[in-house]
Design goal:
Blueprint: H1 2-22, H2 28-44, H3 52-59, H4 66-86, H5 92-114, H6 118-139
Length: 140
């Protein structure tokens, strides 16, 4: 199915971009900021028309469908990357909870950016993530 091939290609392209982006970044907090920076640049780019994965899920949202599975793989990979970053400083269970929350912030900001509210979405995403990561540090 062509759309699955396109989704898999986009997922791999995004993964490679993040690999290159995060390679020189030292701390977990800086890595999270770098991921947010990438999203902010994407939201502000002239070619931004929302998330292809979100659009595809809206069209082919039946669990078990090949498109659903491709979207699920990409979204799970982003959430897992966030968790892997957070596990550098947090226990696995807490990192999983915080990663899920950061993932939801990114997904929500992406939707708001598609609705023309990108600047507000990025500011809210950063503020919430900062408070979240600050509380994570204090809870250790």
């Amino acid at each position: 199915m062509l759309i699955v091939n396109v989704l898999d290609w986009r997922a791999e392209h995004f993964r490679r971009q993040l690999d290159m982006l995060l390679e020189p970044v030292a701390t977990p907090d800086e890595q999270i900021v770098a991921i947010f920076d990438w999203h902010e640049r994407w939201f502000e780019s002239p070619g931004f028309h929302g998330c292809l994965f979100q659009h595809s899920l809206a069209e082919y949202g039946t669990p078990g469908h090949a498109v659903f599975e491709a979207v699920s793989r990409q979204k799970h990979a982003l959430k897992q990357r966030l968790q892997d970053i957070l596990e550098q400083t947090l226990p696995e269970e807490r990192a999983a909870v915080f990663a899920n929350t950061l993932f939801m912030l990114i997904e929500g900001a992406t939707m708001l950016a598609h609705l023309g509210q990108g600047k507000m979405a990025v500011a809210s995403m950063r503020k919430t993530a900062s408070a979240l990561l600050f509380s994570a540090d204090r809870l250790q």
